[in-house]
Write a structure and sequence with these properties.
Blueprint (H helix, E strand, L loop, with lengths): L4 E6 L9 H11 L3 E6 L12 E4 L9 H12 L3 E3 L2 H7 L4 H7 L8 E3 L2 H6 L5 E6 L8 E5 L2 H13 L4 E5 L3 H5 L1 E7 L2 E8 L8 E3 L8 E4 L3 H18 L5 E8 L5 E7 L13 H11 L1
Helix pairs in contact: 1-9
């Protein structure tokens, strides 16, 4: 295996929070590769020194979204950026879900509010989750239970800030079964994990760079693998090749079938500690990409 130089892109606030980073560094070194953890907004960094630059945990990008998009354009001109610039631009705004829905993939019912008129006309359900379409992790994620007025007020405030708001009915199955995440490297299924509910039974907001989550290994069901495969097939067809990494988050719908929550192609945690050999699978896929 020829030695190459890899950058794993994070941010100053996330370096000690991203538990995948040390596992990946160890694996790249074990494969004889040069690897360095870097901050996406480091003005002193010479990006030409890296053969491959991999976006991992720039979890503050949503706070400077326009600057981050400019960084994608600039860095991709001098190094092999992964995931690809087109994938990153598309995936960093959750309006991408409209494209996934149009492709016929089962997605949690999702509405997008862009104006105050949209907010005033929208019929908020009794149990909803809303957040800006440009947001990392659980930042500005709100759940409103039996409080339509508060949901409308929150949505109106976000729209007034120039943000697009996505609204989804809360999936009650999360409280009992959690979410399932399917992780893919180089277009191949790597592992699955189970995530406990972040938003509790009462109205609340999750608003931090990193939320402590209840994560455990799980074995993906056949129906979950079918949904994950359909999502990966769509992404591959849309962009012409499989992404280096993808995380497909899903939840069980009322009829017992899995339904897509979102597909993470920018800065997802892989929870590598839940699956033996997963860090190696990622490093080998990155070397090939």
């Amino acid at each position: 295996m020829t030695s190459r130089s890899f950058a794993l892109v994070s941010c100053a606030q996330a370096r000690d929070l991203d538990t995948d980073l040390p596992l990946l560094v160890n694996e790249f070194i074990a494969l004889g590769q040069h690897v360095q953890i870097v901050d996406w907004d480091d003005p002193t960094l010479d990006w030409t020194q890296f053969d491959v630059t991999i976006v991992r945990s720039p979890w503050d990008y949503h706070e400077r979204y326009a600057e981050f998009l400019q960084w994608i354009d600039r860095v991709s001109m001098v190094t092999h950026l992964l995931n690809s610039p087109d994938v990153l631009r598309w995936n960093t705004d959750k309006c991408y879900l409209t494209d996934v829905i149009d492709a016929g993939i089962a997605v949690i019912p999702t509405s997008f509010l862009t104006t105050q008129a949209d907010v005033e006309m929208f019929a908020f359900a009794d149990d909803v989750v809303l957040k800006p379409t440009v947001s990392a992790g659980s930042n500005n994620t709100h759940r409103f239970v039996n409080d339509v007025a508060a949901a409308a007020k929150c949505a109106g405030e976000l729209v007034a800030q120039g943000r697009v708001v996505m609204v989804q009915p809360y999936q009650i199955s999360i409280d009992e079964m959690g979410e399932t995440g399917l992780v893919y490297f180089g277009g191949q299924f790597s592992h699955a994990f189970r995530k406990g509910a972040i938003l509790g039974a009462q109205s609340r907001v999750a608003n931090s760079l990193f939320v402590q989550e209840e994560i455990s290994h799980t074995t993906a069901r056949a129906t979950e693998l079918l949904l994950g495969g359909a999502v990966l097939e769509y992404i591959t067809s849309r962009f012409g090749s499989a992404p280096l990494y993808a995380r497909v988050d899903m939840v069980e719908s009322a009829d017992g079938t899995p339904t897509l929550m979102e597909v993470e192609l920018t800065e997802p945690s892989f929870f590598l500690h839940t699956s033996h050999g997963s860090a190696n699978r990622f490093a080998e896929a990155a070397w090939i990409a």
